[in-house]
Every structure is written in C-alpha cells, then in structure tokens.
Amino acid sequence: MVSSPHEAMHRIFQDYPGLFSRVSEVLGVGFAPPTAVTVMPTDLTEARPLERRVDTLLRLDSEDDESVLLAVEAQGKKDPDKPASWAYYASYLHSKYRLQPMLLVVCQDRATAEWAARPVRIGPRQWPLLTLRPLVAGPHNMPVISDPAEVGKDLALATLAAVTHGRDPDAGAILKAVSTSLRDAPAEIAAPIVELISLGLGKLPAAAIWRKLVAVDLSFYKSPISEELRAEGRAEGETRRAAQDVLDVLEARGLDVPDEAREQITGCGDPEILRRWLLRAVTASSAEDIFTEV
Predict the structure, then answer these.
(1) 51: alpha, beta or left, given left = phi > 0 and alpha = psi -120 to 50?
(2) 136 - beta bridge partners?
(3) What letter would DSSP give residue 57?
(4) Residue 21, class by beta-carbon neighbours within 10 Å (0-12 exposed, 13-18 middle, 19+ buried)?
(5) Which residue from 76, 60, 68 is spatially nearest to 19, judged by alpha carbons?
(6) 203 CB burial (10 A radius; 0-12, 13-18, 19+)
(7) Helix axes 171-182, 187-201, angle to 10 degrees
(8) pLDDT at 18 over 90
(9) Cα–chain-centroid distance for residue 37?
C-alpha cells in the first residue's frame, strides 16, 4: 500500500475535480465551478529522452467557455529546480493544448508553501520575459475545520484541509471533526476519504491519531485501510494485555516491580518476548530476573 502525502495532496483533485473552485475561493481567486472535467495525461515528455511528469492534470470547462488546464503539484520541501520545471509545464501545456494553464501547489509545511508562492521572474533583470505565479494551498491559508457540521458541508475541502494541517498542533481536533462527520456518510463516500487522509498524513504523528479514530469512530464500515487499521489496533491491544499479564503475575507473587522494569515490560511490542517473560514471571525471584536469558 502506498503511503505518501505527496500522492494524497494531488490525487484528491482527481477524485473530487470540483474541489478546485472551492479551494480557489478560499485562496481569494475566483474560478467558476466547472461544468465538465477531463483527467488529462500527466506525461509531458518531449521527443528527447527527458521525462517530465506533472502530478495531476485536469481540464476544467466552465459555463463562460473559458477552459483551464489545471496542473496540481504536491510539494514536500523547497526545491530550487522546481520553478524551472513549473515554467516548462506551463509553456508546454499552452503550446500543446492552446488552453490557459494554471498551477496549484499543495504543501503541508508553511515554509515550503511560502517559498512556492513567491513570484519567480524568468529573463533579464531589466525585462523579465516570464513571471511564474503558482496558486499555493497550505497550512498558512487553508481553513482549520474542527466543527463536524462544517466538515459535512464540504467533505472534499475538509479532507484537503486535514491533510495540509497534518503538522498542526490541533491536528487531533481537526481529524476528530472529520471522523465524526463521516459517521453519517455512506461507506462509498467515507472509504476514499479515510484512505486519502491516511495517505496524506504519511508518517506524521497525526497519522497515529487518525488510525485510532478510524478504528473506533468508523468501525461500522469496511475499506482496505480501515480493516488494516483495525487489525493493527487489535494487535496493539493484545500486546498491551500480554504486558499487563506479566505485571499481574509478578505483583500477585508479591514481587516488587521497579519503574525501569515496568517501562521495559509495557514498552515491549513483541508478543513472543512477552510470552517468554510471562513464563519466567511464574518462577522468577525478582522482576529483573525475567529479562535474563537462561
């Protein structure tokens, strides 16, 4: 299973293509809701053996007949080579499709988002030929949605907001609002959102919070990730119980369990080691003896 914030931050626009008009409104730039959306090929490679791929590419058609090519890029860190690539994407897309290109960069890190939002002028200082101005969505400008009722009004926007605020100290409250709102959503709507947020949080500490919320709040429906999360939760629960069994035997025998030994027992995540310690606890003369290999 792919676990990548990069994947989630742009793939959400493929799954919910109408999301861009709401995001652009949040960011202070008005784009009308599309009347039609086409997922375009992301390969921008030339005939030369130089591969260039945009993360997500959508054609957005609106009622005013002004079609826009939306390139969505997920950016995890500052990269001095990226502006040149983005300028290439814009020029190539305009040349190939004869449509106006738009670039949206999605970030989880505030410093990266502010870096990506800076205009980049290409050309001589006296007369820049091009000015690159990506629209950037990140923790600095995406809404913090911690009310389940607000989440329910726009699940796609709330999902993107939860991912972009994955490093936020209040991430737990944001994720709790999403999981609470999803209780009332059909499984076919909730399942992809659970997966996108899980992908988007990657290995951030907030990912552990989300996994627990899914295992508890959304235990009534099934999806590949929710099933995996619940299986992990069951395994963690069994490990905790096994550690407690070791402590119970030692205490029932009247043995003192120092803090250091207690921490070692409760911190062990290996069921096989805990089983060996439990067997030794039955005959050990002290708590420390259970750690000694015979």
Answers:
(1) beta
(2) 105
(3) E
(4) middle
(5) 60
(6) exposed
(7) 160
(8) no
(9) 24
Mean pLDDT (whole number) for 121-125: 85
Report the phi/psi class of residue 3: left, alpha or beta, with left for phi > 0 and alpha for psi in -120 to 50.
Answer: beta
List 61's β-bridge partners, or say none.
Answer: 36
Angle of CA points 137, 138, 142, to nearest 5°: 80
Contact assessment for residue 291 and residue 277, using Cβ atoms and an 8 Å cutoff: yes
pLDDT in tens, 166-210: 999 889 999 999 999 998 888 888 888 988 998 899 888 898 888
Give the per-residue pLDDT at 3. Answer: 46
Residue 10: pLDDT over 90 = no
Q: What is the DSSP letter of 95?
A: H
Q: What distance in Å separates the CA atoms of residue 169 and residue 262, rounded to the nearest whole number?
A: 30
Structure token pair of residue 17: 């293509």
The 10s digit of each residue's pLDDT in 56-105 is 999 998 887 688 999 999 999 999 999 999 999 999 999 999 999 999 99
Beta-strand (E) ranges in 29-124?
A: 36-39, 56-61, 68-74, 100-106, 120-122
Q: What number of other Cβ atoms are within 10 A of residue 90's Cβ?
A: 19
Q: Which two tokens stand for residue 129?
A: 């030929």
Which single residue is written with the structure tokens 């090519």? 69
Helix (H, G, I), strand (E, B) or coil at 43: strand
- Complete edge-to-edge strand list for the sheet that includes strand 68-74: 36-39, 56-61, 68-74, 100-106, 135-137
CA Rg value for the chain: 25
Please report where in the chains the tokens 């709102």 appear, as a residue: 181
Query: In this predicted model, what pLDDT tens digit does every residue of 139-175 receive, in sequence order?
Result: 999 999 999 999 999 999 999 999 999 999 889 999 9
Q: Which long-range contacts (CB under 8 A, 24 or more apart) does 225-230 make?
A: 225/1, 225/194, 225/195, 225/198, 226/191, 226/194, 228/1, 229/198
Q: Which helix (H) or strand (E) is 194 found in, with range? A: helix 187-201
For residues 188 and 281, give the distance between their C-alpha atoms in angstroms, rounded to a whole number. Answer: 49
